[in-house]
């Protein structure tokens, strides 16, 4: 899952991003509305966590822009204002959910995951292939009934490959979906993560390399 955090309080924005990355999400950050608009226009985000009172481009304007994009991300609006009128106005602008500040971080995570599941391209509740069962909601994965102990990035890579199956995914696309904009495109991070996944999944081999195309879930 790829998330954009648009928040002008830098420490809060960085804390949110760090916490979401710990949950396995790919997170980009913008500290003003103009930068947020530029990033939202060029990258395919699942969810945008959007502060309402932003410099540069106001959060209300940015929310409308995102909502009217061809393939819009879902918007979780953050604001210090918590009156019913403020919430109604935020939703009217195109926000998909509304969370007043201060908030509990576990609730923010649950709301982001819930929004991601509402996207038309969202994954089914349980992904199954090659004897693997992965539940994105419960954050569990098994193979042949054996629980898999996966890191957050391993979990997201496996989820992306299962969602794409039987089609392959390139290393570049996996890097875009699972890591954030700061990831080095020349890094071996994807191949290293896939290698760890293969070892944890065991035999028969569940992830195969497709020459010139990337990786896919095996037909087994």
UniProtKB/TrEMBL annotation:
Entry keyword set: DNA-binding, Phosphoprotein
Domain of life: Bacteria
Keyword Membrane applies: no
Gene Ontology molecular functions: phosphorelay response regulator activity; transcription cis-regulatory region binding
Record-annotated DNA-binding residue ranges: 124-219
Any one GO BP annotation for this protein: regulation of DNA-templated transcription
InterPro entries, sorted: CheY-like_superfamily, OmpR/PhoB-type_DNA-bd, Sig_transdc_resp-reg_receiver, WalR-like, WH-like_DNA-bd_sf
Pfam families tied to this protein: Response_reg (PF00072), Trans_reg_C (PF00486)
Listed GO CC annotations: cytosol; protein-DNA complex
Gene3D superfamilies registered for this protein in UniProt: 3.40.50.2300, 6.10.250.690, Winged helix-like DNA-binding domain superfamily/Winged helix DNA-binding domain
Stored CDD domains: trans_reg_C (cd00383)
Domain Response regulatory: 2-116
PTM annotation (4-aspartylphosphate): residues: 51
Residues in OmpR/PhoB-type domain copies: 124-219
PANTHER family: REGULATOR OF RPOS, TRANSCRIPTIONAL REGULATORY PROTEIN CUTR
Protein name in UniProt: Transcriptional regulatory protein QseB
Organism from which the protein derives: Streptomyces smaragdinus
Gene it is expressed from: qseB
């Amino acid at each position: 899952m790829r998330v954009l955090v648009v928040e002008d309080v830098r420490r809060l924005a960085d804390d949110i991003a760090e916490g979401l990355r710990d949950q396995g999400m790919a997170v980009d950050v913008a500290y003003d509305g103009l930068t947020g608009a530029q990033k939202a226009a060029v990258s395919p985000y699942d969810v945008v966590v959007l502060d309402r009172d932003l410099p540069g481009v106001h959060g209300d304007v940015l929310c409308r822009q995102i909502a009217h994009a061809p393939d819009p991300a879902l918007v979780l609006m953050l604001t210090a204002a918590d009156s019913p009128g403020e919430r109604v106005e935020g939703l009217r602008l195109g926000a998909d959910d509304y969370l007043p500040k201060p908030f509990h971080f576990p609730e923010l995570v649950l709301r982001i995951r819930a929004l991601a599941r509402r996207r038309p391209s969202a994954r089914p509740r349980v992904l199954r292939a090659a004897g693997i069962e992965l539940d994105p909601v419960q954050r569990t994965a098994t193979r042949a009934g054996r629980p898999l102990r996966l890191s957050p990035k391993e979990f997201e890579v496996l989820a992306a490959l299962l969602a794409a199956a039987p089609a392959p995914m390139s290393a570049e696309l996996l890097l875009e979906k699972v890591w954030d904009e700061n990831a080095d495109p020349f890094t071996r991070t994807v191949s290293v993560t896939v290698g760890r996944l293969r070892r944890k999944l065991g035999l028969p081999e569940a992830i195969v390399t497709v020459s010139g195309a990337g990786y896919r879930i095996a037909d087994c």
